Amino acid sequence: MATMQRVAQSSVSTSAAATSSYGGSSSCKGPEVVISDQFPVGLRVLVVDDDITCLRILEQMLRRCLYIVTTCSQAKVALNLLRERKGCFDVVLSDVYMPDMDGYKLLEHVGLEMDLPVIMMSTDGKTNAVMKGIRHGACDYLIKPIREEELKNIWQHVVRKKWNENKELEHSGSLDDNDRHKRGNDDAEYASSVNDGADVSLKPQKKRSNTKEEDDGEIENDDPSASKKPRVVWSVELHQQFVSAVNQLGIDKAVPKRILELMNVPGLTRENVASHLQKFRLYLKRISGVAQQGGISTSLCGPLEPNVKIGSLGRFDIQALAASGQIPPQTLAALNAELLGRPTGNLVTAMDQPALLQASLQGPKCIPVEHGVAFGQPLVKCQSSISKHFPQSIVSVEDVSSGFGAWPSNNIGTAAPSSGLGGLSSQNGNMLIDLLQQQQQQRQLQKSQQQQQSTVPEPSRSINVQPSCLVVPSQSSASFQAGNSTVSVNQNGTFCRTPVIDYSLLSSQSNNSSLNIGQVSDGDLQTTGVLSGYIPPTSLSPSVSSCSLNADNCTSHQVQTSSMTFKASRHLPGFVHSMCDVQGPFGVTKSGDVFDQAHFSNLGYFNKEACLPTRFAADEFQLPMSSSSSRGKVFAENTGTRVKQEPSMEFVDNVKVGIPMLQQFPPNDLMSVFTE
Amino acid sequence: MLGLGADRLRADMNRLLAFLFHQGILDEQYLQLQQLQDESSPNFVSEVVNIYFHESEKLLRNLRSLLMDREFSDYKKMGIHLNQFMGSSSSIGAKRVRNVCVAFRAASEQNNRAGCLRALELLEHEYCFLKNKLHELFQIEQQRVLAAGVRYPMQN
């Protein structure tokens, strides 16, 4: 792990210990000799506690663990220290109650600005206090008195965080992924968890990112332990208003008071706007940083920083993950929590459906949808505005958002009763039509229908695979879509539909999903303004169907296994899965793994605000993917044989294509991206 | 005899410690504290305890002044002080002080002024008792160190 190496190095070179001055607010330790190659040694810990008794004890304990300890008795000083010396600390231990700054606030800042694991500590072990800490993004919560044994283990948070980051990037098959995957397939539990556990787990993640603008609006999602104080719900619409107000004023001249006046929303206070503005600025800053960097590697880095949650994610179910993904701390996406609530509702309804298989399928699919929703939310605004611009667009913003929640459930309901393929296909067709109309692309519709028809014969093969494979593929498709979905609401809607289709026909599933994706991408393209990539997606679905046939032929071409950018790989998995559906015989588990990874990565990806450009890139990537698949059936085969490596192959192509796209995107004014 | 004196002082110390534990004045966290004392910080326990005394007296003063304000007692601030008091007390293993803090905080959360006053009295009493006993302990320890010429008696 990178962390370990880094830490080891640092410990070798110089590690500190020191004398700390208690009267002073902070004391940084001078160098001391602690030489060891063993990992936890040399971990750089910043301890913040206004109680200097505890501070001294903690310092001693941590030093006994051979960590490099810096103590600080004031939160503000600690924050300054963290800002001044970015990268000089691996983990932060913070008290909750401090006179100058609330520990939660510090936590929030740290999460927002430097993405360090923060461990909270307090004498107050009440559940709601702990919940609050977790919600704000604490990776652990220690109850005083703290024992040395507890501190010996804090390095795990550092490793976990880095590991998750790496996982996101490398999408290396990891235990976590597998676990999540399994859990995802667990339909029954899943359903139940959706209702109670997931909600709770979802919320915290949400909270951590947007502590101030968390939502009370959705009662269904509110867990009892949530703070009673009403908070501002930065819904899509509200945020839209906010953005337009900022645009009107100009980002440099935008001050909370003026924004508030322009927004003219009752109940909104200057403080609310101020904090939101602060976050928004940070977000813009981060995005612009990523944009400037350009290139794949840099874009990757962007995501790395932000993903604070992954560590915490590991503990939660997939849904929780999704939620976390939705609620990336620094992401503005997090602001739009409303939509999240709806998807969960959909999930529940979906779970009610009789067939377990379906349920299992739906579950995973729904989750991705949620992801998509969450991610899409920030973008949703853009789209909505875009749709407005489009003369023919039927869907208004509100319709989209509301339809969002409604669609999936409806689809599911219809799907369950209707076993007939025809019905399903027709539904799809309708859906597609809607989308097409919106996007003014009728060709796709025809194509898609054709595809579906063509796919019908294939199902027989796929049927064999279905029972085992089905779940995974569906997930994959869903997750895949989720990635795409970030851009537009419409896409999400399509996603939901795809799952429905999947139940009836596996092969059709893959096709459908691909089709949907294509559409989605189209939508994205229109919105984004990148026209070139979009056409390919439509071709995608047909290609997929053809791929399944090819798979039988199985001429495995070993393509270059080149280390791709992670994002691409993620997207690819989704693709791969669709392929897998057809090719059933392939290791289901493998595909599943990939799948999960794809899922996971998508989540992480989206979580980050910085990802905005990257998301677009992802969409673009998909386009190339689709095109590649359409070109070469070989690709499909490859994917079948080697699930894991395939992604990378495809990716390469994608990367080439996608990168330019990426660069194009960032240049656009961020604000404009938001609004337009 | 030097050695004999040291042994006797050691026995005194152990007796006192046993008493403090038995009375629930100290708990195992204090032993943790003792274990943290090593070559790099030979006087760690007394150093921490002195910090604790210093801070606690400040907190007690603050608490009293908050409660003495007849018109308006800032219970929230009181709660914050008590939280800190609890944290530090539990960190050095001052069990009884901590327990009184818990009761105090409960009273302050209910805005129970009378309860707070009672708790404050008790807290001051417990604190003084603890302080005396710990001073006694440190004194014996010091004598023992002098007598035995051993620096780290706790470690053996």
From TrEMBL, chain A:
Which SUPFAM superfamilies does its entry note?
CheY-like, Homeodomain-like
Q: Does the keyword Phosphoprotein apply?
A: yes
Q: Which residues form the HTH myb-type domain?
A: 226-285
GO molecular function terms listed in the Swiss-Prot or TrEMBL record: DNA binding
Q: Where is the composition biased (Acidic residues)?
A: 213-223
Query: Locations of Polar residues compositional bias?
Result: 454-463
Q: Name one GO biological process term.
A: cytokinin-activated signaling pathway
GO cellular component labels? nucleus
Residues forming the Response regulatory domain are 44-159
Renumbered to this chain, the Basic and acidic residues biased-composition regions fall at: 170-186
Task: Cite the InterPro entries for this sequence.
Answer: ARR-like (IPR045279), CheY-like_superfamily (IPR011006), Homeodomain-like_sf (IPR009057), Myb_dom (IPR017930), Myb_dom_plants (IPR006447), SANT/Myb (IPR001005), Sig_transdc_resp-reg_receiver (IPR001789)
Residues bearing 4-aspartylphosphate?
A: 95
Which regions are flagged for Low complexity bias?
A: 442-453
Indicate the principal place this protein occupies in or around the cell: nucleus
- State the family it belongs to: Belongs to the ARR family. Type-B subfamily.
Protein's recorded name: Two-component response regulator ARR14 isoform 1
TrEMBL record, chain B:
Q: Would you say which domain of life the source belongs to?
A: Eukaryota
Q: Name one Pfam family in it.
A: Hpt
What's the main place this protein lives? Answer: cytoplasm
* UniProt xrefs under SUPFAM superfamilies: Histidine-containing phosphotransfer domain, HPT domain (SSF47226)
Q: Residue ranges of the HPt domain?
A: 41-137
Query: What do the Gene Ontology cellular component annotations say?
Result: cytoplasm; cytosol; nucleus
An example Gene Ontology molecular-function term: histidine phosphotransfer kinase activity
Function according to Swiss-Prot or TrEMBL: Functions as a two-component phosphorelay mediators between cytokinin sensor histidine kinases and response regulators (B-type ARRs). Plays an important role in propagating cytokinin signal transduction.
This protein is called Histidine-containing phosphotransfer protein
Species assigned in the record: Theobroma cacao
Classification from the root reads: Eukaryota, Viridiplantae, Streptophyta, Embryophyta, Tracheophyta
